[in-house]
Design a protein that fits this description.
Blueprint: H1 2-13, H2 22-27, H3 37-41, E1 69-73, E2 75-86, E3 89-100, E4 103-109, E5 116-130, E6 133-141, H4 148-157, H5 172-177, E7 181-185, E8 191-196, E9 204-227, E10 231-238, E11 241-254, E12 265-287, E13 293-300, E14 304-318, E15 328-331, E16 339-346, E17 350-359, E18 370-380, E19 385-388, H6 398-414, E20 417-429, E21 432-441, E22 454-466, E23 469-484, E24 497-513
Length: 514
């Protein structure tokens, strides 16, 4: 399977006008959504509880517990650092930013007559994903070079003529034109292969700095109904907006002071901007088999995004020679300095099962004493898929279709399904509530080359309810483990940087009964 995945990864480089890669599929689906402070304080485990605006984005059936209405505002502050380890060299990068959590309005009504005891309607906004991060790693590598991926690109393409100077404008054409890689010729002067100037045997210093910004911002509308105070049913539709901006600078330099190697350093600068709009739907139910128990099930449809990538690459190489190759600086030259591609991305579906035990479950919520709750969520990450732009005005050529088919096969072989777990509880003391929670998001990788990842959230908070006003304050600490590869190779060993993030989130939710 490892060779199969690497084969497809290297096939992608042949279509180097495109910026999509398997990591994009995971980035836009392996998400931990923000919510109200109450929801986050109990680990996000609100799938069978309801009575909170967050139900719009988790299990809309929970809105059916509303008999009045709420106006909710949830700002949040996020700060922390990313720690990297690459060839036993450790680096730290800090980050901080404000986000807007679940915010909106719920309107409930009910007369208690007939089968339908009450109904509710909500309009809400949520930050489904936050892409802001700063990652830096470096180390000395004596196993491989970034330039080898360009050699493999040319080897797989079978090209040996002058077309290699322009056919791969975001890849090996840049490396060849800047003399980072050179042709190997036989006695007849024919090109038989390619070689890199990076002195791998004696070690090269490798460093990558990645600055990412953006997020997924999801407005949604939802409705729900309460049947006989036993069965709650609800649904929602959302139109999320996705924005992702990445700037990456990769440097590779000779680790020695030897000036006869014909190589000093090479720098690869990449810029990627992805933006677009999607559509998804959620449906769920909550059933109370007994007065104290609630069981919830929710299904989240795939999100269908129409996305546009704007991508540019520049390579600078210093060969440390005295001839005309002393300093080579070449960048791809389009009218706007970048390539643009449009495509459709379909993210995985999700299934959420939930159970809650409510302490002293009675109609008067002011007399309830608290709850214990748990969610289990199934996500099939390999179900993500890329498709050609469906707009009739956009002409999709066969090369694009072939590229996206290979990309989808690589996604299938890089990722797997995983389970996410959330647990939490609340104790109520008249107008004051105390909450604790935890959430674990499982490994989405198939571990082809040491890839492992997980996310652990530990949370706690306080709540206040009195005379139509409520305020909740929550602290969530995220412990995330992931891996990042500066490049992948088919015929040589390569290594990824392990990334460990410790991120703190402070959330405040203010609400008013309406």
């Amino acid at each position: 399977m490892k060779k199969f995945l690497l084969l497809f990864i290297n096939c992608f480089t042949a279509a180097s006008l495109f910026a999509q890669e398997p990591a994009d599929a995971l980035r836009f689906s392996w998400t931990v959504p923000s919510g109200t402070a109450r929801q986050q304080a109990v680990g996000g485990a609100m799938g069978s509880l309801g009575g909170d605006l967050s139900a719009t984005f988790m299990n809309p059936a929970g809105l059916a517990l509303y008999k009045t209405g709420d106006l909710v505002l949830s700002p949040a502050y996020r700060f922390g650092k990313n720690k990297s380890n690459y060839f036993n060299r450790k680096e730290n990068e800090k980050e901080k930013n404000f986000i807007l959590g679940t915010t909106g309005v719920v309107i409930g009504s009910g007369n208690g007559r007939g089968r339908v005891k009450n109904t509710a309607f909500s309009i809400g906004f949520n930050t489904t994903a936050n892409f802001k991060s700063n990652i830096l790693y470096n180390g000395i590598n004596n196993q491989s070079s970034y330039s080898q991926k360009y050699i493999e690109e040319l080897t797989n393409s079978g090209r040996r003529d002058s077309t290699i100077t322009y056919l791969f404008p975001h890849g090996s054409s840049l490396a060849f034109n800047t003399y980072w890689i050179d042709p190997v010729k036989n006695a007849s002067g024919n090109v038989t292969g390619f070689t890199s100037r990076s002195p791998v045997a004696s070690g090269v210093i490798q460093q990558q700095n990645i600055i990412s910004r953006g997020g997924i911002y999801e407005p949604s509308i939802a409705g729900a109904a309460n049947f006989n105070d036993r069965l709650l049913v609800g649904g929602s539709i959302s139109v999320p907006y996705l924005y992702y901006n990445k700037e990456s600078i990769y440097n590779e330099a000779d680790a020695t002071t030897n000036t006869t190697r014909n190589f000093d350093f090479a720098t690869v600068e990449e810029k990627l901007n992805t933006k677009g709009v999607g559509f998804n739907a959620k449906a769920g139910l909550i059933y109370k088999p007994q007065e104290f128990w609630r069981i919830g099930v929710a299904v989240h449809s795939p999100t269908i995004y129409s996305l546009t990538d704007t991508y540019s690459t520049q390579i600078t190489t210093d060969t440390s020679q005295t001839d005309d190759r002393s300093l080579s600086d070449y960048s791809v030259d389009y009218e706007d300095g970048s390539s643009i591609s449009k495509y459709t991305l379909i993210t995985p579906y999700r299934i959420v099962g939930s159970i809650s035990y409510v302490l002293r479950e009675i109609q008067d919520v002011t007399k309830q004493k608290g709850f214990l709750t748990a969610d289990i969520e199934y996500v099939n990450y390999k179900a993500s898929s890329f498709h050609p732009e469906s707009d009739e005005e956009v002409v999709t050529d066969q090369e694009t279709k072939d590229y996206l088919q290979l990309l989808n096969k690589a996604v299938d072989n890089a990722y797997k399904s995983a389970f996410n777990f959330r647990v939490g509880g609340e104790l109520k003391f008249t107008t004051i509530m105390v909450r604790l929670g935890a959430a674990y998001y499982g490994n989405p990788y198939k571990n082809i080359n040491g890839e492992k990842g997980s996310k652990l959230n530990l949370s706690g908070g306080l709540g206040y309810r009195n005379k139509g006003f409520f305020a909740d304050l929550t602290y969530v600490h995220n412990i995330n483990k992931d891996v990042h590869f500066p490049y992948r190779l088919q015929a040589a060993s390569y290594k990824g940087a392990t990334i460990k993030s410790g991120i703190s989130n402070i959330l405040l939710t203010l609400g008013w009964k309406i």
